[in-house]
Specification:
Blueprint (H helix, E strand, L loop, with lengths): L7 H6 L2 H12 L7 H13 L3 H6 L9 H7 E5 L7 H5 L21 E6 L8 E6 L5 E6 L5 E7 L7 H7 L12 E3 L2 E3 L24
Parallel strand pairs: 1-2
Antiparallel strand pairs: 2-3, 3-4, 4-5, 6-7
Helix pairs in contact: 2-3
């Protein structure tokens, strides 16, 4: 795993003292492949107060080339899919509201991508999910073969969602509630995370952190 794709946030926030001890060792690394980059990112994670700090610390780039975007975005489903050239070649930073886009389209940041047909027209949309943590965005190709932001995805932080997406355990279905149309604008009901039953553990044996 390259330093850019390693989940330093997991060590900092989700693995107890085992993770923080590992970060200390990585931050002190002075030898080996990509040691300076590893130490830099480990130190960023050590200083972060929450996972979002790691996203906000991504440097702003004056230019994002198609090659940079391809490196920033990893397609996780389907496993053999690649992002369309038109998507990678689009000048996303020239959009009217670039701040509404995921960081990987405007900063030196990372995203995971899933390509799946959300609207049933036979053409896959591109779903981007911020790394190491954060929300999701959906993009659609219009009749001019130009990719546009279709909207945002909720509940990306619910327990087990990101792991299930990476494994391909998802499907599409009609909304549970209809939209409310007010003066031509659609209002949609956003639901909360569905509670998961707690996993039972043997008495006296603490649950081990997993990733």
């Amino acid at each position: 795993v390259t330093p850019e794709h390693f989940d330093f946030a997991f060590l900092r926030f989700h693995s107890g003292h085992f993770g923080t001890d590992a970060l200390e060792r990585l931050a002190a690394r002075a030898q080996g492949p990509q040691a300076p980059t590893i130490a830099q990112r480990a130190n960023q994670a050590r200083r972060a107060n929450n996972p979002y700090d790691l996203t906000r610390s991504a440097p702003v780039l004056s230019t994002l080339t198609p090659a940079m975007l391809a490196r920033n975005i990893t397609v996780v489903q389907p496993k053999d899919a690649v992002l369309p050239d038109q998507f990678l070649q689009k000048d996303w930073k020239s959009m009217p509201r670039p701040f509404a886009l995921p960081p990987c389209l405007r900063l030196d940041a990372k995203c995971e991508a899933i390509m799946t047909d959300l609207d049933g027209d036979g053409q896959p949309e591109i779903l981007l999910f911020n790394l190491p943590i954060g929300g999701g965005w959906a993009f659609k190709s219009n009749s001019d073969n130009d990719w546009v932001l279709a909207g945002t995805l909720t509940n990306g932080l619910c327990a087990g969602v990101r792991e299930a997406l990476r494994a391909g355990r998802f499907e599409t279905e009609s909304p549970q509630f209809r939209d409310l149309v007010v003066d031509g604008q659609r209002m949609r009901l956003t639901t909360e995370c569905t509670p998961k039953p707690e996993a039972a553990s043997s008495p006296g044996i603490p649950a081990q952190p997993s990733h």
